[in-house]
Amino acid sequence: MTDMTRSLHLSNVRLADGQRVSVSVADGRIVALGPQAAAQPGVPVEDGGGALLLPGFVEGHTHVDKSNWGRPWYRNEVGPRLIDRIDNEREWRKTSGHDAAAQSLALSRAFVQAGTTRLRTHVDVDTDAGLRYLEGVLGTRQTMRDVLDMQIVAFPQSGMLVRPGTTELLGRALAEGADVLGALDPALIDGDPVASLNETFDLAQRYRKPIDIHLHEPGEVGAFTLKLLLDRVEAMGMQGQVVVSHAFCLGALPERARDVLLERIAHLRVAILTSAPASVPVPPLMTCRDKGITIFGGNDGIRDTWSPYGVPDMLERAMLIGLRYDLRRDDDLAIAFDCVSDAAARGCGFADYGLRAGARADLVLVDAETVAHAVVSRPKRKLVVANGRIVARDGELIDVL
Asked: Which of 19, 121, 285, 314 is within CB 3.0–4.6 Å of 57 for a Cys-Cys bond?
């Protein structure tokens, strides 16, 4: 029997190429998309009014457990070093009453309201908090499960080797529901890139989980760590199962040395995540794409103790990617959107994604002439459909959660 709560017919909408189509949805899946797609008997019909149809957005890298979204302003007086930010955040979270469950739910709802239907979040696991933050985000994932496909990365934000007991906690996190194993700066934080990467890959193999590593390490240090990581990907047969987040070193190396690394990254099917920050080197977007590397986008932290910036709107992140990489042509701005849609779904391994029959019905309508126009103007979401259910209309979340 058809689930009528996850079935609808969306008429009079436009694809990116300008074609006017209808979309037939049943049981949360797209069953037909095209000019001749017919409404099924008894299914609610929505007139799209000629709006642009986009797939649900994908957030490839964020930290929903530590956000201050919706809370009073946090006064940021932290020092300039990475370790300053780590220590400041750990202490603040212990003493401020910050609730990872409540904050992750508030931010996840805001993501859905703005059209995000797939999301990868890193969640802190350390010897101070144990699995408390993970438990809060697991609760949010359960609450949002019908409308938000959430992947959880067990992330050692304070380091792994430098805080004995963290490895065991990461193993427990993976056993209790985390989807991906995180890691952080094996040289500059853990102080021993060989031992740190060995521990990370052994743990991933033991629990049969993919890896998503934060690699902030600059220049030659980052390149050395990246080479070690790629050696392990190859030796342990983890092609297509590793994401390198940030990868600042790829934006700072001489072109010849960089391209040698990029060739190996492409060969081993390692994906690259960038938040396209304005203040540090970034991996070369177009060169990565030309070499067949999946490079995709994410917000990183949103309104937390690390940074006051960020909003849960992937059209804005696409715009910031466009600005950082000087994307001006309409076809180039479509690439910026790809970073928060198809490329992000591939990079994170989200299945059944896109505007095609058989895919999960995650749809966004905006009043924009083209994809480039949508990225630049970031219009109010006219309609958001998640897993076949209308969850937001005219920029407002419908009370379905």
From this structure: 314
Burial class from Cβ neighbours inside 10 Å (0-12, 13-18, 19+) for residue 35 reads: exposed
Q: Which pLDDT belongs to residue 253?
A: 97
Q: Check whether 68 has a pLDDT greater than 80.
A: yes
CA distances for 137 relative to 72, 145, 155, 257, angstroms: 21, 12, 13, 40
Q: What number of residues does the chain have?
A: 401
* Residue pair 50/368 in contact by the 8 Å Cβ criterion: no
- Closest by CA to 197, choosing from 144, 169, 165, 156, is 156
Residue 31 burial (10 A CB sphere; 0-12, 13-18, 19+): middle
> Which residues lie closer than 8 Å to 90 by C-beta, 6 or more apart?
126, 128, 129, 157, 158
Q: Which residues contact 94 (CB under 8 A, 6 or more apart)?
A: 128, 129
Tell me what the pLDDT averaged over the chain comes to.
96
Distances (CA, A) of 316 to 299, 363, 379: 9, 17, 10
| Domains along the chain with CATH numbers | 4-55+354-397 (2.30.40.10), 57-348 (3.20.20.140)
pTM, 2 dp: 0.96
